[in-house]
Design a protein that fits this description.
The structure is a single chain. With 740 residues, this protein is of the alpha/beta class. The chain has 23 helices and 11 strands. An 11-stranded mixed sheet has the order 1-2-3-4-5-11-6-10-7-9-8, sandwiched between helices. Helix 8 runs antiparallel to helix 9, helix 10 crosses helix 12 and helix 18 packs antiparallel against helix 19. It is globular, with a radius of gyration of 30 Å. Bound molecules: the ligand O=P(O)(O)O[C@H]1[C@H](O)[C@@H](O)[C@H](O)[C@H](O)[C@@H]1OP(=O)(O)O. Keywords: Hydrolase, Lipid metabolism. InterPro entries: INPP4.
């Protein structure tokens, strides 16, 4: 398999007989190292800890004590359930909007009916999955052997916190966390046609080139349509509430309160008006116009001057070629501008009226009703003529009604036109399009469960580190994934799924709130393009946070993935297959990591940076990583070590993944742990291999194998191991045929 050439296969195992490091004891008690008051919070999400204690010699012949801990998380099930509920809501809402699209010409109407049938089926499927998952109360672990189960599709495989706590004689205690989890992938759908990265690309290319019977909107524009729809649905009720509050202030005749209410109303209305500035709304309105019965243009609506990238080059479908084709001029493009501008004008009327009321209240003078700027809104009219003693409520009420009406009109038109954009996305290639959405949801759910788990643990361990908290709200957190998948056979598809799932995590932001009850489980809000995960902290912990975080500032994450296949399949890929997927993933993610580093250097305070630079040579490490990625060396595990080191130095969240997070992952995390002990805690160099073997033989990871497949053996055979890089081979007696 190649690795023998290096002269490394003389010993398949790295075990040194007779010279064992000491595994002092096993315990099941949760870790007691961090601040005690944080424990209930962490214990609410971590379950079934397995602990192992070791004692290893240091280079100056003292002893270091190591506590290794591995815990499951109830977030494995909680997050998928939260997410599926949200996705059902989002899809139900979209289906409703499709139904409310109004009258369409027969072609579009049939298309819509077809889309709705499939979308309803899809929602039913999500509901069934949610029902099944809800039966799993209290579950916190999905084993590797259940990875293909349909009802557990959204649940991450074998998710654990792998923690190493080091007490070394001369150094401060240190904690090293890695989240271990099976690569987020759609095992139930399988990998016959590849994974998301390829499938999405292929789907988009085909869709772009098959403009027949629907209008092509780019993924960016479809996403924009969803964003505007979501903004509308949030802003409209908010504006209505602020308008009612303004009326309330008016009836109380309170100038201060009136001013404040007006300020809020103005801000929200401006946001609302701004939301429609997009050219997409304009082009979508025209498109919808053509899809109404009789509303046909000579040409399909061309988004040439709009944000649209390309439109169908194919001839319009037959039903467009009617004799009674109206001219472009039949469509009054300016009507939208008028409707839209009415909202702004209505607001101006309200502002003018409030100014006038307050002014006259103060001066007791009369008014000619002409308004300050002389501009009259759509219905200000005679109601602007007012007197000091008049009821403020009476004066404002009709204006508020007008604002709400104008807003309703805008919302109605924009909603329908943008829903029409969504119909185009769904219209092509049903039901493949929905299966692709399902696949992306499944993969994302697994990735998100891991991320939330990692975030909460990171927050818990670094809660009293001011540098970390500053970084959290000014820069955001790097989340680094180490992938060990091969670029051969099925694992290509897994890696393609994983790459998209991890990249989709960019759409997630965190928000920390104060827990008001004992329920500290995270809550998710949002929709597919943008989710917010609310993490609740008990009062005392919440109080210690910086103001920006307490005020609800969104905290962002920057996911990066580096993959290096290490097994016999990777040897085949290198010899006879293709490793370009791994190469491009590593190259692309290196750029992302570099970008993060640049922002980190720019945004963190100068004092912090100068201290940071004294301690770390991040520039050098990044350069080294870059060179290793460019070098295109086989099984270059240096890439993983460098990426992990950079992540640790940048205070990031570490993940290690392979197909099941059981065998290869166990080899990698144990190697990482021992390498840290050697490089950071003066582990005696003669004991490096012994410590490694000891951990693999008796540590938490062999327990992980046991809990997954009920057998205490890593699922490797001798032949496979010959292909593994040297330090990834477990000791004799710990591997063999296992029924996985
Ligand atoms: O935890 P993994 O490394 O993904 O487990 C693999 C193992 O590496 C491989 O040798 C073995 O043949 C199996 O394919 C394992 O995967 P399972 O998902 O079957 O546990």
């Amino acid at each position: 398999m190649g690795e023998i050439e290096d002269g490394e296969a003389d010993h398949i195992t790295t075990d040194v007989q007779g010279q064992k490091c000491a595994l002092v004891c096993e315990c099941t008690a949760p870790e007691s190292v961090s601040r005690k008051d944080n424990l209930p919070f962490l214990n609410a999400v971590l379950k079934n800890p397995v602990c192992k204690l070791y004692r290893f010699p240091t280079s100056d012949n003292k002893w270091m004590r190591i506590r290794e801990q591995m815990s499951e998380s109830i977030l494995s099930f909680h997050i998928p359930k939260e997410l599926i509920s949200l996705q059902i809501k989002e899809d139900l809402c979209r289906n409703q909007e499709l139904k409310e699209l109004g009258e369409l010409s027969p072609h579009w109407d049939n298309l819509r009916k077809n889309v709705l049938t499939h979308c309803d089926q899809m929602v039913n499927m999500y509901q069934d999955i949610l029902t099944e998952l809800s039966k799993e109360t209290g579950s916190s672990f999905k084993s590797s052997s259940s990875k293909g189960e349909k009802t557990l599709e959204f649940v991450p495989i074998n998710l654990h916190l792998q923690r190493m706590h080091v007490h070394s004689p001369h150094l401060k205690d240190a904690l090293y966390d890695v989240i271990t989890v099976g690569a987020p992938a759609a095992h139930f759908q399988g990998f016959k046609n590849g994974g998301l990265r390829k499938l999405l690309h292929r789907f988009e290319t085909e869709r772009r080139n098959t403009g027949y019977q629907f209008i092509y909107y780019s993924p960016e524009n479809t996403a924009k349509a969803k964003e505007v729809l979501s903004n509308i649905s949030q802003l409209q009720p908010l504006i209505a509430t602020h308008a009612d509050l303004l009326l309330n202030s008016a009836s109380q005749h309170s100038p201060e309160s009136l001013k404040n209410s007006l300020k809020m109303l103005s801000e929200k209305t401006e946001l609302f008006v701004h939301a429609f500035k997009d050219q997409l709304v304009r082009s979508a309105l025209l498109a919808l116009y053509t899809a109404r019965p009789g509303g046909v243009l000579k040409k399909p609506p061309s988004p040439k001057n709009s944000t649209e990238e390309s439109s169908s080059q194919d001839p319009p479908p037959p039903m467009r070629r009617q004799d009674s084709i109206p001219h472009h001029s039949d469509y009054d493009e300016e009507e939208w501008d008028r409707v839209w501008a009415h909202v702004g004008k209505s607001l101006n009327c309200i502002i003018a009226m409030v100014d006038r009321l307050i002014e006259r209240d103060g001066s007791g003078e009369g008014d000619d009703g002409s308004g300050k700027d002389g501009e009259k809104g759509p219905s200000l009219g005679d109601s602007a003529i007012t007197h000091p003693q008049e009821d403020w409520y009476e004066q404002l009420y009709p204006l508020i009604l007008t604002l709400k009406d104008c807003m309703g009109e805008v919302v109605n038109r924009a909603k329908q036109s943008l829903t029409f954009v969504l119909l185009q996305e769904l219209a092509y290639s049903l039901p493949q399009c929905l299966m692709l959405t399902l696949r992306r949801d499944v993969v994302f759910s697994q990735a998100l469960a891991g991320l939330v788990c990692g975030f909460i643990i990171k927050l818990h361990t670094s809660l009293y580190d001011p540098g970390f908290l500053e970084q959290l709200h000014t820069v955001g957190l790097i989340v680094q994934y180490e992938g060990l998948l091969s670029t051969y056979s099925e694992e290509i598809g897994m890696l393609e799924d994983m790459a998209v799932g991890i990249s989709d995590l960019k759409k997630v932001a965190f928000k920390i709130t104060e827990a008001t009850s004992n329920d500290v489980l995270p809550v998710i809000t949002g929709r597919r393009e943008h989710y917010v995960v609310e993490v609740k902290l008990p009062g005392r912990m919440f109080e210690s946070l910086p103001l920006q975080i307490k005020e609800g500032q969104l905290l962002h994450v920057y996911p990066v993935l580096f993959n290096v296949g290490i097994n016999e399949q990777q040897t085949l890929a290198e010899r006879f297959g293709d490793v370009s997927l791994q190469e491009s993933i590593n190259q692309e993610n290196f750029e992302l990591l570099k970008e993060y580093y640049t922002v980190f250097m720019e945004k963190m305070p100068p004092d912090y940076i100068s201290h940071f630079q004294e301690q770390n040579d991040l520039k050098g490490l990044l350069e080294n990583l870059h060179q290793n990625i460019q070098a295109k060396k086989r099984k270059n595990v240096e890439i993983m070590w460098l990426a992990a080191t950079i992540c640790r130095k940048l205070n990031g969240i570490r993940f290690t993944c392979c197909k099941s997070a059981k065998d290869r992952t166990s080899m990698s995390v144990t190697l990482e742990q021992c390498s840290i002990l050697r490089d950071e805690h003066q582990l005696h160099k003669d004991f490096f291999i012994r410590a490694l073997d000891c951990m693999r033989r008796e540590g938490c990871r062999i327990e992980n194998v046991l809990k997954n497949i009920k057998c205490r053996k890593y699922a490797f055979n001798m032949l496979q191991l010959m292909a593994f890089p040297k330090y990834y081979r477990p000791p004799e007696g710990t591997y063999g045929k296992a029924d996985t």
